[in-house]
């Protein structure tokens, strides 16, 4: 801001915001003759909304601004709106074609306060030209969300589109706030070199996964591709073994070795798998997956100890995490080889003695540092945190994955990536990304089960790669 004429960044932001609003209005009949309502708070967020409203008013829209803090309104933005024909009003009109949420921006804390909260709740009563509720466009972030954590501490705006500036914020990609942002459009306002610092959060895309995925070559064989060991399931829970092996078989490794009492069921479903009763008898592998359906008896504890005693990368899930809680395996966790854990919120709470809470990113980082492991914290926006504090958030999550056994599939796929030689954080990111896409694809056919997710992995990966 010190190197640009005053107001330059706001004008760029407002131009990008006005463009997106115009595109939405075009879908419902055009800008000219439409009614646009601006919810205007104090400061620059309200200024962005006012300048964008001025642009829309100049194109023939009837722009009506509700000033929630008249004494602190952005005066230059308000003057621009009035020059273009926009007006201020005391409350919501009976009809509107678009609502712009410029109440509060990235400097706010806590949920919406009155009278903003009541005003936002009444938006559901608005109707547009087509009789439907008009779309809501949030300026930078939906008002009321916790920008740095993605928490929603109280009343907040449910946006259809969020237009943000310069860079994404954590609230766009993690926590309950991400669901309130709707479609997020990033507008480049020329921040340039100021964005070169390490990001608080990283988000993978399809190009990342394709670039990192191991490829076979003319000299590849089943051993050079990697061999993954899977110590999951039991006579009581053979399905966990079958599903985790299915996930492993979809990965890049050339061979899967299974160790456990569900060996006969596993081989029946997956005849290419080499099976044994115990980890000690499984043979040579490059990484271990342990936990899903293993049980928590003495036999399960012995298998867990056998896995942790190796010098190989290990993924622990489900029952293996339960076995860690009593502290008997504290010395087993003092290992130099990579360790990945994949808890859901309940398992996280048992390990960390508290639920992830409002700051899921911070909680995952704290646990990762405490146990010196990569933590994959499951959720709609799965988080991958390293002991060094690097954080990734997976963008492909789907509620379709909230079904029994889907985590077993994820564990197997992740273990296969570990055995192929991927660093633990990349293996976790890649597995979560592909698993999320598989859930979406499976959901296209109706209600999803874990076998559907496993079956969808191959076409998803074929498309990605």
TrEMBL record:
Its EC number is 4.2.1.136. Binds 1 potassium ion per subunit. AMP binds at residues 378-382, 407. InterPro entries: Carbohydrate_kinase_pred_CS (IPR017953), CARKD (IPR000631), Nnr (IPR030677), Ribokinase-like (IPR029056), YjeF_N_dom (IPR004443), YjeF_N_dom_sf (IPR036652). (6S)-NADPHX binds at residues 240, 293, 344, 408. Pfam families: Carb_kinase, YjeF_N. GO terms for biological process: metabolite repair; nicotinamide nucleotide metabolic process. Its cofactor is K(+); Mg(2+). It is an enzyme of class 4 (lyase). Residues 205-464 form the YjeF C-terminal domain. It comes from the Bacteria. Keywords: ATP-binding, Isomerase, Lyase, Metal-binding, Multifunctional enzyme, NAD, NADP, Nucleotide-binding, Potassium. It catalyses: (6R)-NADPHX = (6S)-NADPHX; (6R)-NADHX = (6S)-NADHX; (6S)-NADPHX + ADP = AMP + phosphate + NADPH + H(+); (6S)-NADHX + ADP = AMP + phosphate + NADH + H(+). The keyword Electron transport does not apply. Homotetramer. Bifunctional enzyme that catalyzes the epimerization of the S- and R-forms of NAD(P)HX and the dehydration of the S-form of NAD(P)HX at the expense of ADP, which is converted to AMP. This allows the repair of both epimers of NAD(P)HX, a damaged form of NAD(P)H that is a result of enzymatic or heat-dependent hydration. In the C-terminal section; belongs to the NnrD/CARKD family. Belongs to the NnrD/CARKD family. HAMAP family: NADHX_dehydratase. This is ADP-dependent (S)-NAD(P)H-hydrate dehydratase. It comes from Actinoplanes friuliensis DSM 7358. The lineage of its organism: Bacteria, Bacillati, Actinomycetota, Actinomycetes, Micromonosporales.
């Amino acid at each position: 801001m010190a190197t640009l004429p005053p107001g330059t960044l706001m004008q760029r932001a407002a131009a990008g915001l006005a463009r997106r609003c115009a595109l939405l209005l075009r879908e419902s009949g055009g800008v000219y003759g439409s009614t646009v309502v601006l919810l205007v708070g104090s400061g620059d967020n309200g200024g962005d909304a006012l300048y964008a409203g001025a642009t829309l008013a100049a194109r023939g829209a009837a722009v009506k601004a509700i000033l929630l803090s008249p004494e602190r309104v952005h005066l230059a933005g308000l003057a621009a709106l009035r020059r273009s024909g926009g007006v201020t009003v005391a409350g919501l009109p009976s009809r509107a074609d678009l609502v712009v949420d410029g109440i509060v921006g990235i400097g706010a804390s806590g949920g919406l306060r009155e009278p903003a909260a009541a005003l936002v709740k009444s938006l559901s009563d608005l109707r547009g030209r087509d009789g439907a509720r008009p779309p809501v466009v949030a300026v930078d972030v939906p008002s009321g969300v916790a920008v740095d954590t993605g928490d929603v501490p109280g009343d907040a705006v449910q946006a259809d589109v969020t237009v943000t500036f310069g860079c994404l914020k954590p609230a766009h990609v993690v926590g309950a706030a991400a669901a309130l942002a709707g479609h997020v459009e990033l507008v480049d306002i020329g921040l340039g070199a100021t964005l070169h610092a390490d990001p608080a959060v990283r988000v993978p895309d399809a190009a990342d996964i394709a670039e990192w995925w191991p490829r076979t070559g003319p000299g590849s064989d089943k051993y050079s591709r990697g061999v993954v060991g899977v110590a999951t399931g039991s006579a009581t829970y053979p399905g966990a073994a079958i599903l985790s092996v299915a996930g492993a078989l979809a990965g890049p490794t050339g061979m899967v070795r299974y160790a456990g009492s569900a060996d006969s069921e596993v081989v029946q479903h997956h005849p290419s798998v080499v099976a044994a009763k115990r980890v000690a008898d499984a043979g040579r592998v490059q990484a271990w997956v342990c936990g899903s359906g293993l049980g928590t008896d003495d036999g399960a504890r012995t298998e867990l100890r056998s896995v942790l005693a190796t010098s190989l990368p290990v993924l622990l899930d489900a029952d293996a995490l339960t076995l860690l809680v009593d502290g008997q395996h504290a010395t087993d966790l003092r290992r130099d080889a990579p360790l990945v854990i994949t808890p859901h919120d309940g398992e996280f709470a048992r390990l960390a003695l508290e639920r992830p809470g409002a700051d899921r990113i911070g909680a995952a980082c704290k646990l990762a540092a405490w146990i010196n492991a990569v933590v994959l914290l499951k959720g709609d926006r799965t988080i991958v945190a390293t002991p060094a504090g690097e954080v990734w958030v997976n963008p492909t999550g789907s509620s379709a994955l909230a079904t029994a056994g889907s985590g077993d599939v994820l564990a197997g796929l992740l273990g296969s990536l570990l055995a192929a030689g991927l660093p633990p954080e990349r293996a976790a990111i890649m597995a979560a990304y592909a698993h999320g896409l598989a859930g979406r694809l499976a959901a296209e056919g109706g209600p999803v089960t874990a076998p559907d997710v496993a079956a969808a992995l191959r076409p998803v990966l074929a498309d990605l790669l």
